[in-house]
């Protein structure tokens, strides 16, 4: 159930910039519809798996994104009725019910009805077992993991590695403000190679994600990232 990045790269109309914009829209829709974070991660996985196997026309990008979010919500039992979801989801604006239904069938057939996957949320919870359960740490990890959804270089990266790199980065950021920021001594080579890439995307997040995680209910973690690159750049440069 891991997407094939090389398959998506062959898309003639659905380019990486299109995907970036669509994932940001999915994040906004997930937030507006008050869906769980796991719904967003599953929706992006569905989107990537489908687009690695089938041609996506530019005019169908939002429709596909909306259907991916709808399927994820159904699978995780996160919506009351499909009709209310369709009415409230901005991604379905301009599409008829038959268009949505047909795309839903096409996606399910393409994925052989395999919707679930090993989500990064589950691996995050495993990683947090070794830490004091601080909400800012969880929110920072979630912010980092959600940022990785936007960028093509992380499409085929295993969720377990992303979660491990997120906890390393988040613990340093949150620990810095608590006077406890220390690097783990058992960080693997694969995770070390991810750290500078995560540092890079933290420096220029999509505006919608920045504001989403700059809010009080998300512990204002986006605001805590300032100065992180200059502080850690010399540490990561050797990798």
Automatic annotation (TrEMBL):
<dbReference type="InterPro" id="IPR039361">
    <property type="entry name" value="Cyclin"/>
</dbReference>
<dbReference type="GO" id="GO:0044843">
    <property type="term" value="P:cell cycle G1/S phase transition"/>
</dbReference>
<keyword id="KW-0131">Cell cycle</keyword>
<dbReference type="GO" id="GO:0051301">
    <property type="term" value="P:cell division"/>
</dbReference>
<feature type="domain" description="Cyclin-like">
    <location>
        <begin position="24"/>
        <end position="109"/>
    </location>
</feature>
<dbReference type="GO" id="GO:0044772">
    <property type="term" value="P:mitotic cell cycle phase transition"/>
</dbReference>
<dbReference type="Pfam" id="PF00134">
    <property type="entry name" value="Cyclin_N"/>
</dbReference>
<protein>
    <submittedName>
        <fullName>Cyclin-like protein</fullName>
    </submittedName>
</protein>
<keyword id="KW-0195">Cyclin</keyword>
<dbReference type="InterPro" id="IPR013763">
    <property type="entry name" value="Cyclin-like_dom"/>
</dbReference>
<dbReference type="InterPro" id="IPR046965">
    <property type="entry name" value="Cyclin_A/B-like"/>
</dbReference>
<dbReference type="InterPro" id="IPR006671">
    <property type="entry name" value="Cyclin_N"/>
</dbReference>
<dbReference type="GO" id="GO:0016538">
    <property type="term" value="F:cyclin-dependent protein serine/threonine kinase regulator activity"/>
</dbReference>
<dbReference type="GO" id="GO:0051726">
    <property type="term" value="P:regulation of cell cycle"/>
</dbReference>
<comment type="similarity">
    <text>Belongs to the cyclin family.</text>
</comment>
<keyword id="KW-0132">Cell division</keyword>
<dbReference type="InterPro" id="IPR036915">
    <property type="entry name" value="Cyclin-like_sf"/>
</dbReference>
